[in-house]
Design a protein that fits this description.
This protein has a five-stranded mixed sheet with strand order 2-8-7-4-3. The longest helix has 28 residues, at 393-420. With 490 residues, it is α+β, with helices and mostly antiparallel strands. The relative contact order is 0.14. The protein is globular and about 75 Å long. The chain has helices spanning 16-27, 36-47, 105-113, 129-135, 177-185, 191-210, 238-261, 275-288, 298-303, 310-319, 364-378, 384-387, 393-420; strands at residues 6-8, 62-65, 75-81, 87-94, 117-119, 122-124, 143-153, 159-175, 219-225, 228-234, 263-268, 327-332, 346-347, 352-353, 427-436, 439-447, 453-457, 470-477, 486-489. Helices cover 35% and strands 25% of the residues.
Length: 490
């Protein structure tokens, strides 16, 4: 499930938006430097030769697919056709357990952080850079310990076999999404990239048939031009969606292994958004001029949107917040009374049981899910250090997710305030998307252009806000880093 991806383009360290982002990191208590003991442990682990798996898969021509310049390369893949039809996908994931000692200072700090927290201009990583951007990263032409998935797909893209083992791997090529997309579009792509497209499209169709929800959310960019900030959206190339679908596929295979073994950690979402959140979202769609017929279900609505369309892009960005209700569920057959198997393990947005297992460089839970999958695939008992950590994982991940969501909300409010900061006093057309039940003259409005939203407060003795309808509003406050956006009825 995607997070809201916001980027800034101004480079000056003293520029107003950069300064406000630094202040936001301070307010949200973003983890900064690692404790001395944890950093020293990471550096020792990076210097020494890690435990190397017996299975040598360095001849497998894996490739990474990430944005240019990124050094945190946590996964690599390769696709081939199966002789009888269908596909074989090899999916390698960085083996963090080869570098982090359970119970050590680094492990304790990873549990405290739980996730990497992203800001538009920086990030607070889960692990020290000496590991996540160097020794543990699947950088090209370097032998690395990894967890290697081997997934066999039928001709329709469904998984018919899943296996996992520790392996020594080597990435043979470092690709970026734009370059990979050009190669596919021009017919110059090698077979693995061609198969990425085929498998990705098949997985999309399977999701549609199951009623799942995927948000192909665009990147929200705040650009500075002539001393004014503008809000723009950049649509990721299709390769990004196709590779994300393979990650989701791997997560569903992982959930299946853990459910079969009786011990696991799942990513769960009990239901799709209810009537209240969907009603607000329908008002937002109306505000942005997005056509959403009353008879069209939410999943079908999302599939009908074009991320390249500015208003559709803005709407998709708003939809990402509805998936923040997901959490983690642990279960253990050795402790069934304390950690029972979930009665309904399905993740509503995926429309299947699902686990996070493809990003251990930036999510703590993935390391534990991978170890449990490895034990399930080999028929072995799960390590005690994994089992003993299960009780605390949901709470730790929830705390980390709360920090990440606070940062995301703060970033969104900050960049939207930056877009409007020089337009105080101007009058805009807006739609009322929410009303405070106890104060019908207060609520939330959404502008179509620029596609931002803010609070509105009318006279307490005035008429109630027209929920779901258009009104004229005057901007009275938009100061990045100092306050949220506020409007008043015009």
């Amino acid at each position: 499930m995607p997070r809201r991806d916001i980027r800034v383009t101004e480079d000056e360290e003293r520029a107003p938006l950069r300064k406000a982002l630094r202040e936001l990191r301070e307010r949200t208590h973003a983890p900064s430097a690692f404790p001395t003991a944890a950093q020293a442990e990471a550096e020792r682990a990076a210097r020494r030769r890690p435990r190397l798996p017996a299975y040598d898969a360095t001849g497998l021509p894996l490739f990474t697919l990430d944005p240019p310049g990124v050094r945190e390369l946590g996964r690599a893949l390769h696709l081939t056709r199966r002789p009888g039809g269908g596909y074989r996908v090899h999916y390698a994931v960085a083996d963090i357990a080869a570098f982090v000692t359970p119970g050590g200072a680094l492990d304790a700090e990873a549990h405290r952080r739980a996730v990497t927290v992203h800001y538009p201009d920086a990030r607070a990583p889960l692990l020290p850079l000496v590991l996540c951007e160097d020794a543990a990263s699947l950088l090209p032409d370097h032998d690395r310990p990894a967890l290697l998935w081997e997934l066999d797909l039928a001709a329709d893209g469904s998984v018919v076999r899943a296996d996992l083992r520790r392996a020594l791997v080597r990435s043979h090529a470092r690709l970026d999404h734009a370059g990979a997309q050009r190669a596919i579009d021009t017919g110059t792509a090698e077979e693995p990239l061609v198969l990425l497209r085929e498998a990705g499209l098949l997985r999309r169709e399977l999701e549609r048939a199951l009623g799942g929800v995927s948000l192909n959310a665009p990147v929200q960019e705040v650009v500075r031009r002539d001393d004014r900030y503008l809000l723009e959206y950049r649509t990721p190339p299709p390769t990004q969606e196709w590779s994300a679908r393979l990650a989701l596929m791997t997560g569903t295979a992982a959930a299946g292994l853990m459910l079969a073994s009786g011990t696991g950690v799942l990513r769960t979402l009990p239901s799709l958004p209810g009537d209240g959140p969907l009603a607000t979202l329908r008002h937002t769609a109306r505000a942005l001029g997005v056509n959403w017929p009353d008879t069209l279900p939410y999943p079908a609505m999302l599939r009908a949107l074009a991320p390249s369309h500015p208003q559709h892009a803005a709407f998709l960005q708003r939809c990402t917040g509805l998936l923040h209700r997901a959490g983690y569920t642990v279960f253990d057959r050795e402790r069934p009374t304390r950690r029972p198997r979930p009665a309904d393990p399905v993740h509503a947005a995926v429309a299947a049981p699902y686990a996070h297992c493809t990003a251990p460089l930036r999510r703590l839970a993935d390391r534990y899910a991978l170890e449990l999958c490895l034990a399930a695939a080999s028929g072995a008992e799960a390590p005690e250090w994994v089992r003993s950590a299960l009780d605390g994982l949901p709470g730790e991940m929830a705390a980390g997710a709360a920090r990440a969501e606070e940062a995301e909300r703060g970033c969104a409010a900050l960049v939207e305030a930056a877009v409007l900061r020089d337009r105080i006093g101007e009058i805009f057309d807006a739609h009322v998307v929410d009303v405070v039940p106890s104060r019908p003259t207060a609520g939330t409005v959404h502008l179509r252009d620029p596609a931002v939203r803010g609070h509105i407060e009318g006279d307490g003795d005035g008429p109630p806000l027209p929920l779901g309808h258009r009104m004229r509003v005057r901007l009275i406050e938009a100061a990045p880093g100092r306050a949220e956006i506020w409007f008043a009825p015009a």
